[in-house]
Amino acid sequence: MGPLLAAAGDRLAAYHDRLARLVAVDSGSGNVEGLRAAADLVQTWCLAAGMAVEREAVADPDGRPLGDVLVARRRGRGTRRILLAGHLDTVFPPGTAAARPFRVQDGRAYGPGVSDDKGGLLAGLAAVEVLTALGLDGYAELVLVCTPDEEIGSTGSRPLLRTLGAEVDVALCLECARDNGDLVSARKGVADLEVTLRGRAAHAGIEPERGANALLAAARLTVALDALNGRWPGVTVNVGLLEAGGRPNVVADRARLLIDLRAWRTGEYEAALAEIRRLVATPMVSGVRGELAVHAPTPPWEPGARGRRLTELAGKVGAGIGLPVSHTATGGCADANLLAEAGAAVLDGLGPVGGDDHSPAEWLDLDSVVPRVALLAGLVDEVCRSGQEL
């Protein structure tokens, strides 16, 4: 395992330079110009690493462009196809990179997207370079996919991710390790729900009885939805936005709720969603009707035997390079959920250690880069060498 660490160390200076350049590009979800500029950088580095690169423009369900998916491929001599999955987009608006530029302090890098997921994506590319430098090409094909829309549910990238997930044997996802170093072995399923309530406007003083108050219906529905918390283990339902009405002397004829549903298990996810549909269809106020739209439903990625075998292999590689490997489940969803649904064996959190994602304090532990790149490269090689069924 020593050569893995040495080869990863040889890539460290290039990794630092690339990270600074990539973080300097504003690439928030929907910022097509910035996302394509970020993809241009990654494409240049992938081509220099001897990978064949394809790009595909993607759009959301309403046809709005979201940027390009970049897919880089390298052929090997083995039989297993391995996918490395990261994303280019961040949650930050244009101007953030200039207002809060990349910096290094006390062994940590800071900047928008430094951990989620630019540091992880670049670790994937560095692992490809390590494998190439060491002549470890026991895979049939090594594929690096970089999506532009993960932070908004991969609404445009889903078809391609599902195709890739069905084609490969293993998907190693490049979200950064948890701040304590844990890999990620399971994720909650998530659905973004939008409820529209339509009532009837009326003068609140003269003839309120002629109205049908959508605001009141929304309030009652919010209470009913909140009561679902705790009905199933690990299921959470959060009404994050309620908009209704416009004037105090008018009975509100319209209301809108945005709801976050999360669950660990597919059965509980589907049961909770069915109950939410029932509540929305149940009149909370006479004359008010509800409609439910489900946006970017992402099923749970549940723990299973295939994931356990991958974590065991990661532990074996970690022991060889002196890096203890542990893993956890997390309530956040990611492209890993979609890849697992498509049929790949999945392990996530294989980027460097980072934390405070989606905040001005987001950081990446630079001391973790070399061992984590070595772990990732070693895991690819171990998966290809292992006779275990995955």
UniProtKB/TrEMBL annotation:
Keyword Zinc among record annotations: yes
SUPFAM superfamilies listed in its UniProt record: Bacterial exopeptidase dimerisation domain, Zn-dependent exopeptidases
Keyword annotations: Carboxypeptidase, Hydrolase, Metal-binding, Protease, Zinc
Organism domain of life: Bacteria
Cofactor dependence: Zn(2+)
Domain Peptidase M20 dimerisation: 186-283
Listed GO MF terms: carboxypeptidase activity; metal ion binding
Cited Pfam families: M20_dimer, Peptidase_M20
Active site: D89, E150
Name used for this protein in its record: Glutamate carboxypeptidase
Species of origin: Micromonospora mirobrigensis
